[in-house]
Each structure stands twice: as C-alpha cells, then as structure tokens.
C-alpha cells in the first residue's frame, strides 16, 4: 500500500489523501490511510525534513513540495509505502505526486534520490569483511 498525504492548497479545502496513486474518496479508506500516516508522522516527529527511512515496516518520507499554498508557502507532504523497493521508492513517489499535480522541491528530491541510490547493505558488508581481515592480521 502507498499513501500520499499533503496539505491543502487552500485553507477552505480538505487535506488530500492518495492511496496507490488514486485520490481516496471512500471515508473508511481515508480514515485508515490517515491513521497510518499520522502514526508514522508521530514516530518521525524528531526527524528533520526532508527525511526518508524505515519505520514500523514501511518506507516513510516527509518533505516539501515545489508547489505553494494560497499564502505562497511551500506545501508539505508525508508518504509511506510497504510495497516498493528501496531502489524504486523515489521514482514511485515522484509518479504519485505527478498524478496529484505536485512536484518535489530540490532538497526533498536530492534526499530521496540519495536514499534510493544508496547501497548501504553492500557497503556495510564490504566494511565488515575488511575489518575481519584486518583483525586477522593484527591478532596473528
């Protein structure tokens, strides 16, 4: 499931929720999606924005859009997914935003692209192997 939540463009409009790339209209679906986003947002409250990471089995991100509200302020969003790989999350997020007529700002885009392109598990494995070899020669 992919959930995109963003602030309203106008104060008179409700906030919007998109589920799997489609605007949610069924109240029960909206409530479930909003509950999920609120729980993840609370868990990531102390993280600076933009931020992306793993929370409670989801890839969660929050950031700023290139779009502005009625007062000219950058709009913010929250996004979570449980069915998109780390490598594809930035691409899928950008596509879901495009469907909603939105676009990431530069700082958010850079942050999310870095997350998708990072190869931390491989780096960690290589570092561990080098450490074991070094310890082997030191303790020999």
Low-confidence stretches: none
Number of domains: 1
Structure annotation, total helices: 4
Please trace the helix and strand order, writing H or E for each element. Answer: EEEHEEEHHH
**Average pLDDT level:** 85
Specify the helix fraction band: 40-55%
- Our estimate of the beta-strand percent is 25-35%
Strand numbers in spatial order across the main sheet: 3-2-1-6-5-4
For the largest beta-sheet, the strand count, sense and barrel status come to: 6 strands, antiparallel
The termini sit apart by: 52 Å
**Rg (C-alpha, Å):** 18 Å
Global outline? elongated
Classify the secondary structure makeup into a structural class: alpha+beta
- Total beta strand runs: 6
What would you note in describing this structure?
The protein has 140 residues and is α+β, with helices and mostly antiparallel strands. The chain has one domain (2-139). It is 43% helix and 25% strand. The protein has helices at residues 27-43, 89-99, 106-117, 120-139; strands at 2-6, 16-19, 22-23, 51-55, 58-68, 74-81. A six-stranded antiparallel sheet has the order 3-2-1-6-5-4, sandwiched between helices. 25% of the residues are buried.
